[in-house]
Amino acid sequence: MSLALCPGSFDPITLGHLNIIRRTSQIFDRVVVCIMVNSSKTEPMFTIEERVDMARKVLVRFPNVEVETPTGLLSDYVKKFDSAVIVKGLRAASDFEYEFQMNLINKMLNPQLETMFLTASEKYTFLSSSVVREMASYGADLTGLVPCEIIEDVKEKAKIWRR
Ligand code: ADP
């Protein structure tokens, strides 16, 4: 059974993430979305538990997709599976540089680990969780940015969240 891991912070999950996860779920038998703590990023908007709840709410329609919260390094987490491939989305050249570096580090830590990239769908190349957080903090309409199931969750959080 082929297995893909889709890692990220998902703070919050966006339509860009959903697009990559949906396409991955059509290629692999099983997909594990890995919601990670990213210490290099600024203070998150949502707790890990809130990010998991939102992702599960959105991804419930995909029977072969599950959501997990690995702690520690992804290169270690992946060892618990017989074989797994990391799948990431690429939006722009800036993503490529970062992802290329991450890929080399992961390879150094775990030489078995392979990473595959799906290019972002044209209509989501501009979209990131940080764009969503920014827009939400100004009370902007989030239609077309995040899945409709979580628009209210993001709006509610934005009222109490300070950037
Ligand atoms: P963000 O950069 O939005 O904070 P994450 O750190 O959660 O996102 O990224 C998780 C994965 O999803 C990464 O591989 C990232 O490149 C990918 N991704 C994020 N947004 C998009 C998008 N709009 N289109 C395609 N891939 C994306």
Show the helix and strand layout:
Layout: E1 3-8, H1 15-27, E2 30-35, H2 48-59, E3 65-68, H3 74-77, E4 85-90, H4 93-109, E5 114-119, H5 129-137, H6 151-160
Parallel strand pairs: 1-2, 1-4, 2-3, 4-5
Adenosine-5'-diphosphate is lined by residues 8-10, 14, 16-17, 20, 88-89, 91, 95, 120, 124, 127-130.
Number of helices: 6
- Biggest pleated sheet: 5 strands, parallel
Low-pLDDT regions: none
Assembly of the depicted chains: single chain
State the end-to-end CA separation: 42 Å
According to DSSP, the number of beta strands is: 5
In short:
The chain is an alpha/beta fold.
What does this structure look like?
With 163 residues, the protein is of the alpha/beta class. It contains six helices and five strands. Strands 3-2-1-4-5 form a five-stranded parallel β-sheet, with helices on both faces. The longest helix is centred in the middle third of the chain and has 17 residues. The radius of gyration is 15 Å and the shape is globular. The N and C termini lie far apart (42 Å). The site of adenosine-5'-diphosphate has 17 residues, from helix 1, strand 4 and helix 5.
